[in-house]
């Protein structure tokens, strides 16, 4: 399939973008690291080399109070320009264009110096903001202009002014956070004065031949957000103020509607950009969960937007655009929207990376050097760690054979993809399968590896994964007791009443799998929008409406239990855990902490909870109690004195962690001689 719309140039008048792909802003954490700008230069250069039309950096504050965290990046002084020049020079050398995002965090600033339109604390931040005085507002306008001028001096092709996701400018625009009575508060014209003054001052500072993108919140998804008429009016005012492009913002960070997690349908929000397109003449950018060239092409070809924004997909595969241009879309390493390596890291103030691409943001540190030794590598096990190991070894030039005892590739990816909302894992499996074939890896399915078959290889990598851990419990061998693998593989069909032992990631996944009463809404965007109460027709302000009650139906009566006394799901992903907890709560799943498991018998699961003995009358007890490394091959290898190295679950049976497994595969393969 070709992608003529996605790959067509976009004429901005004073400059032309080579295609319609915008790499959306994404904070990596490199901005604050020692030597981080050298690493950022390599990171962005690789994406420019990969064909992106326009790159937008992570958020850079125009002043101290606007920083996301105390030591986060800002651009306010001439001496800071040289660091940014490293980035722009590297991108331009590869034929790319890059804009710097100007982001003032407002009340989201994780420090005691944060400020906002009003003195109203964000529910996701312990620090209450100070209210900006009118004089401080005018000073902040000057700070934006100064920062934009310095960005231009540093060689950037433009700036993106962040006006969405609940950051400072968005805070002034909405009554949720703006109860001012001065010239910056009241009706929409007054609330818009500050953001519009910022745009005008930036345009005056940089001149006409400089890209200004404004990230406009088109769907706030919070109480007190703007209505559709206000969004349209804002867009028209922004066009008059001199913006070059309007980018789409969806939802505040504090919104209780998922916007970018893997359970969100692809392109779920592009219709809202389409609705605005008839109101303004500047190019509009559609965003959120656009992760394949097919989806991007459909959005552009159907007239929903002039450009598409992809941030995490370009973490997953820097060559995304070039592969699409070569009609090699099947070779793209698809972003699965897991948030584990990117957003979860960012909100923990760690360096971002990618579950499916561990080289992202480590371009200068994690490398696969070519190996011309002609040596052979055997990889045992074709789960995520094994497939990645085989691919990386073949990329280095080794002769690779992959052994898998079952009849399919994928391991835990196959199980994960069965969870409602995690269907994207199939895309990763398809990518690795295709990659193995392209690289000439010899794949031996239905072939348990044995020492005799491995002794001729120069290197042996054991990636045999994990097996479910069966706790020491009276009745653990009862017919009612099954493992999560047996359920997901279809080996057993559980009854109407179910107890889930273990409330980690697996327990919650099983809760969603067994409670799902309909086909996964992730596959049906309009159904998903109704389930989460998103009104793209804007019958109510901020696009929020009553949630469809059918989302609360449960296929089973489920009790989720854990030994720990902490809140169930506390260890789930920082940016996605609340979604899983909300789904199970909506479906009436009972969650119990501080449980002692006593036994299983014909009557059900016997437990002790809050000093009382109880019997849960259930048809099945599903074990979600962790894993054990599958190391059955090791005694045989050691007896035959065959050297080996372990990766993934075989090396460490923690919570199922494909991110760690794939990165470890890269590190291990990179060290082979």
UniProtKB/TrEMBL annotation:
Cofactor: [4Fe-4S] cluster; FMN
Similarity comment: family membership: In the N-terminal section; belongs to the NADH:flavin oxidoreductase/NADH oxidase family.
Keywords per UniProt: Flavoprotein, FMN, Iron, Iron-sulfur, Metal-binding, Oxidoreductase
Family annotation (InterPro entries): Aldolase_TIM, FAD/NAD-bd_sf, FAD/NAD-binding_dom, NADH:flavin_oxidoreductase, OxRdtase_FMN_N
Name the UniProt record assigns to this protein: NADPH-dependent 2,4-dienoyl-CoA reductase
PANTHER family (alphabetical): 2,4-DIENOYL-COA REDUCTASE, 2,4-DIENOYL-COA REDUCTASE [(2E)-ENOYL-COA-PRODUCING]
Domain NADH:flavin oxidoreductase/NADH oxidase N-terminal: 7-327
Keyword Cytoplasm: no
GO function terms (MF aspect): 2,4-dienoyl-CoA reductase (NADPH) activity; FMN binding; iron-sulfur cluster binding; metal ion binding
GO biological process: fatty acid beta-oxidation, unsaturated, even number, reductase/isomerase pathway
Originating species: Ferrimonas aestuarii
């Amino acid at each position: 399939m070709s992608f003529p719309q996605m790959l067509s140039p976009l004429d901005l008048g004073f400059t032309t973008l080579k295609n319609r792909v915008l790499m959306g802003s994404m904070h990596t954490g490199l901005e604050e690291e020692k030597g981080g700008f050298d690493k950022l230069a390599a990171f962005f250069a690789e994406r420019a080399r990969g064909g992106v039309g326009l790159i937008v950096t992570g958020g850079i504050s125009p002043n101290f109070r606007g920083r996301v965290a105390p030591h986060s990046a800002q651009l306010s002084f001439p001496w800071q320009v040289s660091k940014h020049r490293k980035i722009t020079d590297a991108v331009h050398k590869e034929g790319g264009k890059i804009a710097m995002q100007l982001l003032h965090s407002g009340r989201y600033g994780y420090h005691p110096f944060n400020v906002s339109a009003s003195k109203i604390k964000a529910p996701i931040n312990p620090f209450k903001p100070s209210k900006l005085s009118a004089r401080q507002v005018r000073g902040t306008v000057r700070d934006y202009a100064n920062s934009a001028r310095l960005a231009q001096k540093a060689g950037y092709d433009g700036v993106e002014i962040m006006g969405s996701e609940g950051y400072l400018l968005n805070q002034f625009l909405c009554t949720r956070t703006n109860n001012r009575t001065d010239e910056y508060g009241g009706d929409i014209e007054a609330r818009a004065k500050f953001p519009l003054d910022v745009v005008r001052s930036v345009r005056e500072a940089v001149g006409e031949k400089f890209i200004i993108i404004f990230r406009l919140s088109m769907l706030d998804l919070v109480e007190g957000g703007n209505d559709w008429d206000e969004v349209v009016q804002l867009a028209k005012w922004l066009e008059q103020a001199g913006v070059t492009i309007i980018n789409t913002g969806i939802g505040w960070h504090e919104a209780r509607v998922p916007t970018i997690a893997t359970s969100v349908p692809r392109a779920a929000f592009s219709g809202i950009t389409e609705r605005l397109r008839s109101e303004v003449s500047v190019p509009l950018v559609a965003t959120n969960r656009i992760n394949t060239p097919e989806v991007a092409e459909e959005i552009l070809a159907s007239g929903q937007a002039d450009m598409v924004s992809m941030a995490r997909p370009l973490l997953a595969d820097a060559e995304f655009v070039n592969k699409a241009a070569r009609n090699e879309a099947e070779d793209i390493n698809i972003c699965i929207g897991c948030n584990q390596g990117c957003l979860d890291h960012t909100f923990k103030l760690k360096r971002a990376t990618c579950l499916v691409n561990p080289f992202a943001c480590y371009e200068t540190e994690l490398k696969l050097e070519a190996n011309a030794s002609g040596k052979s590598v055997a990889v045992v096990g074709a789960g995520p760690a094994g497939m990645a190991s085989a691919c990386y070894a073949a990329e280095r030039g080794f002769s690779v054979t992959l052994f898998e005892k079952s009849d399919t590739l994928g391991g835990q990816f196959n199980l994960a993809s069965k969870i409602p909302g995690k269907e994207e894992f199939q895309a990763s499996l398809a990518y690795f399968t295709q990659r193995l074939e392209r690289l000439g890896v010899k794949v031996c399915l239905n072939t348990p590896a044995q020492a005799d078959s491995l002794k001729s290889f120069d290197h042996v990598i054991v990636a045999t994964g994990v097996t479910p851990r069966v706790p020491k419990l009276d009745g653990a061998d009862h017919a009612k007791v099954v493992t999560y693998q047996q359920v997901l593989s279809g080996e057993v069909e559980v009854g109407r009443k179910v107890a889930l032992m273990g409330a980690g990631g697996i327990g919650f996944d099983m809760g969603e799998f067994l409670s799902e009463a309909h086909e996964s809404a992730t596959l049906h965007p309009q159904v998903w929008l109704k389930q989460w109460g998103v009104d793209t027709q804007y019958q109510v302000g901020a696009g929020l409406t009553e949630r469809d009650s059918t989302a609360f139906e449960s296929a089973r009566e489920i009790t989720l239990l854990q030994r720990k006394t902490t809140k169930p799901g506390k260890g789930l992903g920082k940016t996605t855990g609340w979604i899983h907890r909300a789904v199970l709560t909506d479906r009436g799943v009972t969650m119990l902490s501080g449980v002692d498991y006593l036994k299983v018998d014909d009557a059900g699961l016997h437990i002790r909870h809050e000093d009382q003995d109880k019997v849960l009358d259930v048809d099945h007890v599903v074990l979600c109690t962790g894993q054990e490394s599958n190391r059955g091959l090791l005694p045989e290898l050691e007896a035959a004195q065959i050297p080996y190295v372990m990766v993934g679950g075989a090396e460490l049976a923690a919570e199922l962690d494909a991110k760690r497994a794939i990165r470890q595969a890269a590190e291990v393969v990179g060290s082979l001689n």
